[in-house]
Design brief:
- By secondary structure, the chain is α+β, with helices and mostly antiparallel strands.
- The strands form 2 sheets. Strands 1, 2, 3, 4, 6 and 9 form a 6-stranded mixed beta sheet that branches.
């Protein structure tokens, strides 16, 4: 039993170190020189502090910014929007995302706890977001408002864990 406990604690410490490393790598604003990119828009994303439980609109002014700005770039003639967001039990931060029809959307999802698969039923998107986070890319081909949710039961607040992608 002692060996199992020691192994479990060691595994948790290694996972915590990996999450820290991934977050540090995401903070570095390194851009590959081989790509032709042009930044055409940046907007500030504001998210709720970790203590807030529930949905928070990304445009609210009273919360502090924790993630890099949303960027829209033209890469080799294609418009790409990169959005950093967080996920933890029962909350997507921000819970409202905006994009334009025809863009490639790249969600850089920072996960704070257990696996939370991202599901956007109306767009046919299902992507695993393990505890170490994930990058999810998709092209938005139609306009509208699309709900997204967690695809795996993650506890008592799972049913309220929803957000909205607004495509203009």
């Amino acid at each position: 039993m002692y060996k199992v406990v020691v192994f479990g604690i060691t595994l948790l410490l290694v996972m915590e170190g990996l999450v820290w490393y991934v977050l540090q790598m995401n903070k570095a604003d390194v851009q590959p020189e081989s790509l032709t990119t042009e930044v055409i828009q940046e907007q500030e994303v504001r998210v709720a502090p970790a203590s807030v439980q529930g949905n928070v609109d990304a445009t609210m002014g009273e919360v502090s910014s924790e993630y890099p700005k949303v960027t829209t770039e033209i890469v080799n003639g294609r418009t790409e929007r990169t959005i950093h967001m967080g996920v933890r039990k029962w909350v997507w931060e921000p819970s409202t995302l905006r994009a334009k029809q025809g863009e490639l959307v790249r969600l850089v999802i920072h996960n704070a706890d257990v696996s939370h698969p991202l599901v956007i039923p109306e767009l046919g998107i299902e992507a695993d977001v393990p505890p170490e986070g994930a990058v999810v890319e998709f092209e938005v081909k139609k306009r509208g408002s699309f709900d997204f949710l967690c695809g795996t039961y993650c506890g008592v607040g799972h049913a309220e864990m929803q957000g909205t992608l607004i495509v203009e």
